[in-house]
Write a structure and sequence with these properties.
Layout lengths: L4 H8 L3 E10 L5 E9 L5 E9 L3 H14 L10 E6 L3 E7 L6 E3 L6 H17 L24 H20 L5 H22 L6 E3 L9 E4 L2 E6 L6 E3 L2 H9 L8 H12 L6 H21 L3 H13 L14
Antiparallel strand pairs: 1-2, 2-3, 3-5, 4-5, 6-8, 7-10, 8-9
Helix pairs in contact: 3-7, 4-5, 4-8, 6-7, 6-8, 7-8, 8-9
């Protein structure tokens, strides 16, 4: 992992005397580190740097566009944007170091107050972009990370990508029973047309975070239940309740609180035309995306967790009939 002083200087828009890597962090599509930056003029500072190349370029560019075009429009929960540098074959993004601001990841030990506070924060994001899905940070959609609702042809692309990934996943996940494997095929047979029927007319959609989880992307400061949220590269048109369903996917012990938490989200969203029945339908339907994501991640653990959530929430009932009906 290399973070060149020249690239950091270009991103910050100021000359730099030196850069030191203080910590590194696990990430799937980029190199991420905490950097100590010694500036030629002005005080030294600590930043979080994300360096993407190859397959990670599209995601990095989406995130840079989020910070440049969307984040300035409202009081957002993202860390402060410090700059970016795109060389064509690499993208360096610099943001505020939340750790030095007193924020930290809670993980599965999230309290009720923090869980509900995070839900209010994401509801605020959704409300701001409600039915504004033409405000997309990039023309290049992300297919294999969270199913998006627009444009509709991407829904079919997503289903195809899941089927392709499932071949390799099931070949190696020998501990999965035939009945467990069969669920994915049963869902995929009807999921895409049902999703396309739901988004027809482009109504009641928003921009979703797409990777809203407590294991690494949601940061809390002591005494403040409203978090800061990182990793905005998967921002895309979708069903608002998806972010709530995804946040619960890593909290299996909290699935019993799903309806109460969703009610809290719906009230915080405060979109009068978006009825409770449709909100509930969107939430239960969104759980299928968690199943697909487990296939992309090749995780038996998360696959089985998604199956449990599908049964607990009666998600299969959303695969037939009129979308949005109970």
């Amino acid at each position: 992992m290399t973070f060149q002083a020249e690239a950091v200087a270009a991103a910050l828009g100021t000359s730099v005397r030196g850069v030191e890597v203080v910590d590194t962090f696990a990430a799937s599509a980029a190199d991420v580190a905490r950097l100590a930056v010694r500036r030629t003029a002005g005080p030294d500072l600590t930043v979080i740097a994300k360096l993407a190349r190859g397959d990670g370029l599209a995601a990095a560019r989406r995130e840079v566009l989020f910070f440049k075009q969307l984040a300035p429009r409202w009081q957002n929960p993202a860390p402060q944007y410090l700059g970016a540098h795109d060389t064509g074959d690499g993208v360096l993004l610099l943001t505020e170091d939340l750790g030095t601001s007193g924020y930290r990841v809670i993980g599965t030990d999230v309290s009720d107050e923090q869980l509900y506070g995070a839900t209010e924060v994401i509801a605020g994001v959704h409300a701001h972009f409600w039915n504004a899905t033409d405000t997309v940070p990039s023309p290049e959609p992300s297919v294999t990370s969270t199913a998006q609702a627009w444009p509709p042809d991407v829904i079919s692309s997503h289903a195809t990508a899941v089927r392709n990934a499932a071949d390799e996943f099931f070949a190696n996940a020998t501990e999965l029973e035939p009945a467990e494997r069969a669920v994915l095929g049963e869902v995929l047979d009807v999921w895409a047309p049902q999703f396309q029927a739901r988004v027809a007319g482009r109504r009641d959609l928003t921009l979703i975070h797409g990777d809203f989880h407590f294991l690494g992307n949601i940061f809390f400061a002591d005494g403040d239940p409203r978090p800061k949220v990182i990793d905005w590269s998967e921002l895309k048109p979708g069903l608002g309740p998806h972010d709530v369903a995804y946040s619960l996917s890593a909290l299996p012990d909290r699935q019993g609180d799903a309806e109460e938490l969703l009610r809290h989200y719906w009230k915080a969203l405060n979109v009068p035309a978006y009825g409770w029945d449709l909100c509930s339908w969107d939430f239960r339907f969104s759980v299928f995306s968690n199943l697909f994501q487990s296939v992309f991640q090749r995780s038996v653990r998360w696959y089985r967790a998604a199956l449990t959530a599908i049964d607990t929430l009666d998600s299969r009932s959303t695969l037939s009939g009129q979308p949005g009906s109970t």
